[in-house]
Amino acid sequence: MTDPFEGRSVLVVGTGLVGTSLGLALTRAGVDVRLADAKPEILAEAVGLGAGRPEPEAGGPAALAVVAVPPEAVAAVVGEVLQSGRAEYATDVASVKMLPTAQVRERVADPGRYVGSHPMAGREISGPGAALADLFEGRPWVICPDDGTHQQAVTRALAVARLVGAAPMTMTAAEHDAAVALVSHTPHVVAALMAGRLAGAPGHEVRLAGPGVTDVTRIASGDPELWTEILTANAAAVRPVLEGLRGDLDRLMAALETPVAGQPVLRELLRGGVDGRSRLPGKHGTAHTEFATVIVAVDDRPGQLARLFADAGAAGVNVEDVRIEHAAGQALGLVELDVRPGTEQELAASLRERGWTIRG
Amino acid sequence: MTDPFEGRSVLVVGTGLVGTSLGLALTRAGVDVRLADAKPEILAEAVGLGAGRPEPEAGGPAALAVVAVPPEAVAAVVGEVLQSGRAEYATDVASVKMLPTAQVRERVADPGRYVGSHPMAGREISGPGAALADLFEGRPWVICPDDGTHQQAVTRALAVARLVGAAPMTMTAAEHDAAVALVSHTPHVVAALMAGRLAGAPGHEVRLAGPGVTDVTRIASGDPELWTEILTANAAAVRPVLEGLRGDLDRLMAALETPVAGQPVLRELLRGGVDGRSRLPGKHGTAHTEFATVIVAVDDRPGQLARLFADAGAAGVNVEDVRIEHAAGQALGLVELDVRPGTEQELAASLRERGWTIRG
């Protein structure tokens, strides 16, 4: 198989979480990785972790530079790297694509040597010490070529994506920004605003909270600084999604003013929610409709989960997936075991014989 | 211990999911349960499941009636049950409290013999066949006495709550409705409106969806008919919560019009979300901060989970909780094992020795 890098190295500029993880993954895949970072101690840490070697002072250009810096810094770094001959082609990892792409087009002499990338992977902790070689395994890696993009830039970015185990997909920068506005940025806004309503609420109200509001607000714990930057960078794409949502909110609130007369509008909006949700995988979405679920009550005695799985194994039924739901503050839980349809009765009967309490 | 029911029965009127579950739980606790339902076949099914005996034609009053009917029907049934002498006191199970309480006060001759209850438990499927004796285990059971409520009504409702394993708490009907508006009804609206934005979205946008939007929209799958009724019944308490949320949404959208200048407002709203979220238990909330997490990569070969738990058990480390995250559409998953802080290194080392890939 032809070496997409033609025997040359890949240069990673910026050795934070993503850059260092890329270095680790590419090194593991046998690529010669060179590293650079504005901060010597950060660079040293990444080198020490095995993410690659320091970029040499001299020598030929890298086949590709992956510029792992914040969105607003991408164009300047890409320009410098290409114009100084540190790399033949360049890509980035920023979570918005129109901003860096437009700035590269304006400021860089040969913008076709750049193609935007967005590996959709991350962790809540940052820095080189948090880096993982398998950070990108199975995650989408979006690549956004435009009419002027050189084919080699795309070929090499695709090669990086595949080598680190990601799932590449191409779309325009505008399509990308609209997509992440819908499925990542607006949900974050919505979760944060719902969670904001809890901040000053009386204790007796919060005490009634169950798994529902916990799910809705989970991502509201994300770093406010990071998300301020993300929403600022993608404001133009987020605004229309929020406008649509606010329009629906206005209609729902008007319907609640005359609750009985408003029921058809309520029903329509709630049905729209069911339809929209069914497009995603998850507990009641497409990914799980292929399984049957056996629900087992567990208490908090040590080793219960291990015994449960051992007993399920002894029953000869393969457990495909599992979820545990805890009653808040209680020493009880329900373990939901997903199995192939047709095997659930057998598993339930076998577990009952071994003393487990099966629900439903 | 004094029998709170003084040797008499508890009458359950309405043998759907909640009524039949109550019957099963109270019967298991040794209470003489009598059942009634407008539909003979539904009553017969509940009796057949062991939830109690049919209400006799004659005989003395039950100590307490639990009226398990929809909110708008509560007052009429409570009135009839008390006035005809079928029970000495009555409570209900409706998920709103101001409406039935006000209607009972207006229409029933001795309204102090009624106290409102809301056992916060349920299932997505309904009907007597879905009933479970442990439906209420560890769940909140809210009781809403007012100035005129007879103490015996409260004593007997509390006794039911405790006998079925629920966690009783008292508050006013107004406090209850405001509480569920905040922690249950508004989150449902928010999830449904976010999910509604996905309904017509292009495939390439939805394909980038990850666990975040899946969590935010999970409860949007709930029954639109049921939720239309709930939101209608609690419209007065839900409106102010939505007004607060819309105010914050307006501020956020205005900030996005001038993204850089708007950053302080964005930051403030996002921080409010972090603060609000921290008041709930969950993945990064109070309930889990006491555990350390070991993250293990698994693929989809049969028996992986059973082997993982067996190996964890062999390591002598108790697994307290587990979550599985799947990369959408990929045959890979990350299993997060919660263990007591201080035991995670030992578990990780032991699992690595047995060939598992540990992340982070």
From TrEMBL, chains A, B:
Q: What class of enzyme is it?
A: oxidoreductase
- What Gene3D superfamilies does UniProt report for this protein, alphabetically? 6-phosphogluconate dehydrogenase C-terminal like domain, NAD(P)-binding Rossmann-like Domain
User: What region holds the Prephenate/arogenate dehydrogenase domain?
Assistant: 8-287
InterPro entries annotated for this entry? 6-PGluconate_DH-like_C_sf, ACT-like_dom_sf, ACT_dom, NAD(P)-bd_dom_sf, PDH_C, PDH_N, Preph/Arog_dehydrog, Prephen_DH
The residue ranges of the ACT domain are 293-360
- State the superkingdom: Bacteria
Q: Pathway it belongs to? A: Amino-acid biosynthesis; L-tyrosine biosynthesis; (4-hydroxyphenyl)pyruvate from prephenate (NAD(+) route): step 1/1
User: What is the E.C. number?
Assistant: 1.3.1.12
Tell me the Gene Ontology biological-process terms attached to this UniProt entry.
tyrosine biosynthetic process
Name one matching Pfam family: PDH_N
Q: What chemistry does it catalyse, as a reaction equation?
A: prephenate + NAD(+) = 3-(4-hydroxyphenyl)pyruvate + CO2 + NADH
Keyword annotations of the record: Amino-acid biosynthesis, Aromatic amino acid biosynthesis, NAD, Oxidoreductase, Tyrosine biosynthesis
Any one Gene Ontology MF annotation carried by this entry is: prephenate dehydrogenase (NAD+) activity
Q: Which family does it belong to?
A: Belongs to the prephenate/arogenate dehydrogenase family.
Q: Which NCBIfam families does the annotation name?
A: PRK06545.2-3 (NF005111), PRK06545.2-4 (NF005112)
Q: Please identify the protein, giving its name as recorded.
A: Prephenate dehydrogenase
